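[audit] Reproducing an earlier prediction to check determinism. Same input, same settings, fresh worker. If the tokens differ from the archived copy the diff job will pick it up downstream; this log only records the rerun itself.
[audit] input (221 residues):
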Amino acid sequence: MGEFITLTASDGHSFQSWTDGPADAKAGLVVVQEIFGVNHHIRDMCARFAAKGYRVISPALFDRAERGVELGYTPPDVARGRALRGQVPDDGVMLDVVACAEALGDRKLGIVGYCWGGTVAWWGATRTTKFKAAIGWYGGGIAGTRTEQPNAPVQLHFGEKDAGIPMTDVEAIRDAQPGVEIYVYDGAQHGFGCDERGSYSAADYALAQERTLEFFAAKLS
């Protein structure tokens, strides 16, 4: 069973992180939240990776703005999540991610994130050298930082019908990063991998998760 632990970033900020998985795991993952906090869905995703043998840490990135935030997927929750996201500096986010990577110790590490976390996972590859693999699911900010150069292999997943990430953005990422694995799921919407959202697509989640696990298995073995 997972639990929250307290970590401290290099700037002195202390924050909660959800941990799961075997203590003797040979590989570790940093799992990065959406704009809804380390909520039930993110903890469930951690449990799924833990069940595959990974040691997992998920940082509560909103702790830099407000502690203990756990949101659902209603319109008011979306609005609150966006507001909190705006209060958390990108540099602080990366300090927290690095602190999680360091807490995982001497393992081969990957990073995976969803929504906001999908963008953060991309930055984990481009703005740090901590990870051997990075995977982003429907990261809306990737297109805006697509010219950053990754220091590790990257795999990205997008829904064709994502209202916030037009296919022109995905094509711009493809053009800027020909070495990045990019998958588009026909008809899928934003958040298609979250079974607590109306946009959930079981078939697309299953395929994207299979590709995610295969990628990590190949890069972190």
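[audit] rerun output stored. Observation attached for the diff report: The mean pLDDT is 98.
[audit] end
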